[in-house]
Amino acid sequence: MSSPSSTVSAVAAEVLPQAARRRTFAVISHPDAGKSTLTEALALHARVIGQAGAVHGKAGRRGTVSDWMDMEKARGISITSAALQFEYRDAVVNLLDTPGHADFSEDTYRVLTAVDAAVMLIDAAKGLEAQTMKLFAVCRHRGIPVITVVNKWDRPGKDALELMDEVSERTGLVPTPLTWPVGIAGDFRGVLDRRDGSYHRFTRTAGGATIAPEEVLPATAAAAREGDVWGQAVEESELLDATEADHDQERFLAGETTPVIFASAVSNFGVGALLDVLVDLAPAPSGRPDADGAVRKLDDPFSAFVFKVQSGMDAAHRDRLAYIRICSGVFERGMVVTHSTSGRPFATKYAQHVFGRDRESVDVAYPGDVVGLVNANALSVGDSLYVESKVAFPPLTTFAPEHFAVMRARSTATFKQFRRGIGQLGSEGVAQILRSDRRGDQAPVLAVVGPMQFEVAQHRMENEFGAPVELDHLSYTIAVRTDAASAPAVGAARGVEVMEREDGELLALFRDKWDLRTLQQRSPELTLEPLVAAQL
Ligand code: GDP
Question: Binding of GTP: at which residues (predicted)?
Fold first, then answer.
């Protein structure tokens, strides 16, 4: 029998090879581009689920594994985030789900702090849409390499070369197509693999419910079969050869280029190709800088940070989960880690992979993996966890809120529940919670980036915490940072209010930028600093 310490070191020796197998990514897209469909198709390819959509229903159409919660179902949008893990070839793929709606951009931002690559999913007919651009800006800001998937090629859409121009002009990334469509959008015959010149014929299966068999033909057979349509694809591909449109791994990792593939997620076409691109080209996890800039190496002792906290996900599991991304070392269920913020120990007795409604116990996990820690009441978004040598990763950015409302319990009898709910929503990052002596504890102000966050907060206060609330919208649209020295003078200005956020930051709320500018001009000595804008 091996001693516990030799078991630990045997597992530790696995860290580097295991980390090298990991591909951790998220899909960024505008609502309706096909993110849920693609996620489901990826899971199907990995054979996590036997048949696409078999897991549960979503209003009006076949359900997908990544969407849940009543409100999501009712609205048909994905609000919360989860992670799907599966093996593909020799790799372990972690797909982190992101909310599609713009109002939850802050949630998505946090998810993007936990990935090593992003897949930018574009609807062939719509090109780059607003939310895609916002999320792309986050990837660029964080230096995350981006793989582009042009989806819905089975439907009429834009011209492929035109789409490449659009990508290049609007993102500044040089598109380097790995595959090129044979047949225009709506007349999808298949793709030309630009790496070896072969033809991958588009085959569909009913409803895309099972993996479509891939038929690969050499160029000569493709020419005989598709005639002019093949000829045109070859011509366009050669046109790309003449530009700088060939994949260059270094430039891709540096965020200068984006490999592109063409797909039809609903027919599962291109999904295998995407998985291959992820395994072959997307980066594995690497060391992560801490708040002081020192790099925590992959094989240093265990460390992780919380990028998402969630509770009351569904009636069957009414508990609080903290999702951590592992940065270094090995995670073993049951290990006791230190919570960096409080210095207190945290026992990881219950650790799970969570995706949609499905949960599975995690025994061992490596850098790049996401683990949901159950009953993590002490953990908040942005917190770090470690063993042995202390580490604190940089705090996660909170966006500048643009909407403000006072929240009150409808009945004073539920004040205890109200207070508990507010605390919970604050630590999950559902809304920023602002307080002041003037407004008192019973009337905190909720500050959000998108108004739908109010709806989520209101819904959860009533349904999860048993404290029905009313919201009183305020006319502020801007919050800036101030400090204790400036606060009295700032707060005395007309139409301005100073409140304290849960992290101790003092925020000055203004009705509009003119009010802010007026005060800045009149009293330049006052501290009034911008917060990070939602658009970055
Ligand atoms: P999400 O909002 O980005 O998650 O998008 P969904 O996955 O819910 O897809 C939106 C709609 O587009 C659904 O009706 C899908 O069936 C459809 N869709 C997704 N991918 C494709 C595709 O490749 N081709 C076609 N024709 N429709 C697709």
Answer: 97-101
Residue-wise pLDDT tens digits, 460-490: 899 888 999 999 999 999 999 999 999 999 9
- Whether residues 274 and 299 share a domain: the answer is no
Q: What is the mean pLDDT of residues 180-184?
A: 94
C-alpha–C-alpha distance, residues 535 and 105, integer Å: 9
Residue with tokens 């991958």: 200
Give pLDDT tens digits for 23-51: 999 999 998 999 988 988 887 777 654 44
Q: Which of 330, 361, 386 is the last residue of a domain?
A: 386
Does 151 contact ligand 1 (Cβ within 6 A)? yes
Q: Does residue 270 share a domain with residue 153?
A: yes
Q: Distance, CA 35 to ligand 1 centroid (Å)?
A: 7
Residue 101: its pLDDT value, please? 65
Q: Does the beta carbon of 266 sit less than 6 angstroms from any atom of ligand 1?
A: yes
User: Counting atoms of ligand 1 from 1, which one is nearest the CA of 78?
Assistant: 4
CA torsion, points 456, 458, 460, 464, in degrees to nearest 10? Answer: -170
Question: Are the C-beta atoms of 405 and 472 separated by less than 8 Å?
Answer: yes
CB of 62 sitting under 6 A from ligand 1: no
Are 92 and 192 found together in one domain?
yes
How many Å lie between the centroid of ligand 1 and the Cα of residue 322? 30
36 close to ligand 1 (CB < 6 Angstrom): yes
Does any domain span residue 212? Answer: yes
- Which residues form the domain of 475? 403-530
Q: Rounded to two decimals, what is the model's pTM? A: 0.83
Indicate if ipTM > 0.90: yes
Asked, for residue 516, whether it belongs to a domain, the answer is: yes
Examine the pLDDT at 410 and tell me if it is beyond 80.
yes
Average of per-residue pLDDT values in the chain: 85
Q: Do 71 and 195 belong together in one domain?
A: yes
| C-alpha count within 13 angstroms, C-beta hemisphere, residue 7 | 6
Bridge partners (DSSP) listed for residue 309:
322
Q: How confident is residue 428, by pLDDT bands cut at 50, 70 and 90?
A: confident
Q: Which residues make up each annotated binding site?
A: 97-101
152 Cα: distance to centroid of ligand 1 (angstroms): 7
- Distance (Å) of CA 214 to CA 124, 190, 199, 489: 22, 10, 10, 69
Q: Nearest C-alpha to atom 17 of ligand 1 is from which residue?
A: 34
Q: Say yes or no: 205 and 306 in one domain.
A: no
